[in-house]
Amino acid sequence: MYGTEKPPGDSERTAFRQAEKKYKLYYDDGSLKSSRKKKQVKPVDVSDVIDFKAISEAYERGGELPAGVVVVRCGSPRPVFCLEGRPGFYFIPGALSLEEQCQWMRESLLSFPQPPNRTNHNAIYGPLQDLFAAAKERKGLVKDESNGDCPTWKFVDEAEIPLRGNVCRSYPASALLRKLRWSTLGLQFDWSQRNYDVSLPHNKIPDALCQLAKRLATPAMPKGEEFRPEAAIVNYFASGDTLGGHLDDMEADWSKPIVSMSLGCKAIFLLGGKTRQDDPIAMFLRSGDVVLMAGEARECFHGVPRIFTDKDTAEISPLELHFSHQDDCFLLDYLRSSRININIRQVF
Ligand code: OGA
Ligand code: MN
């Protein structure tokens, strides 16, 4: 009705919000959700999105760097790029080998969501064991009322799902896997308090991931100092999922980088300035890319407004090939419409 439309709030008017809207997934009818009717994805203008893969390839052939992009070598086998005007931000295209991408993708699905690590499902269902296996085996999650006052949830085979009336009181594990949005490793981040809760039970971050993060962090570390991975947040994105503009400001020492690894479908990353009013810089993140944010870059708003899950834009063919074995067809199916981000932090 005329006049009922709310005026845009202040947050809608910021440069960061405008960029998020520009890149977000819309369908051609203006809706945000795909439906049974095959809708077309609204085309997006990516002409302003920095492509570090193309820049890196041109640079390796002896070409020039675009204005505002600089390279630091720091002994790493791959060029590391920085942006003038965003000190403390580092982009390492293709930093992870295909094997590393596959290894951490698998771990992100099979072991990282395992208790005592927590996930977004904890608040509703408590700790869930073997979510990925349960989804693969088409199990359902049912309430186990056998321990009286404190019911728990467990995965059971389809055939064992109790029927109440004709209503099936279970949640398919596959739907819960699709709705897995985050898991936390090492020191547990408490999203409700937006802080680390050192009293929560936790396992150390796996050694191999620590070693990898230490190696990747080198370009952003003060000389002679070693990065100490203490916590990691794993983000899972399905088609249409976004990560809104935010700051990661709960760690004590901002001179230490956040080491952020991309796995799976291609995405757009927005790197803003110190306020939401600053125009963000958009760049593609592909599987295997690594971003470091240290020092002043820790004060910059950033987010992920878009992931690309279409066959021709996801850029995951090498991963698909790797997971083409029969045993991996469930993982392959997940991968085709998903992106995973592992970001590793030194908390103290
Ligand atoms: C985060 C984050 C970026 C990404 O989890 O804090 O900024 O690439 N992730 O998903
Ligand atoms: Mn972040």
Structure characterization notes:
The chain is of the alpha+beta class and 348 residues long. It folds into two domains: 11-32 and 40-113 and 180-345, Sandwich (Jelly Rolls); 125-173, no CATH class. Helices cover 20% and strands 24% of the residues. The protein has nine helices and 19 strands. It has helices at residues 15-23, 52-60, 98-110, 122-125, 131-136, 173-178, 207-217, 317-322, 329-335, and strands at 69-72, 80-83, 89-92, 140-144, 152-156, 163-164, 167-168, 171-172, 182-186, 189-190, 195-196, 231-238, 243-246, 258-264, 267-271, 281-285, 290-293, 302-307, 338-345. The longest helix is centred in the first third of the chain and has 13 residues, at 98-110. It is globular and about 65 Å long. Mean pLDDT is 92; it is low at 1-5. Its cofactor is Fe(2+). Keywords: Dioxygenase, Iron, Metal-binding, Oxidoreductase. Residues 228-348 form the Fe2OG dioxygenase domain. One of its GO terms (cellular component) is cytoplasm.
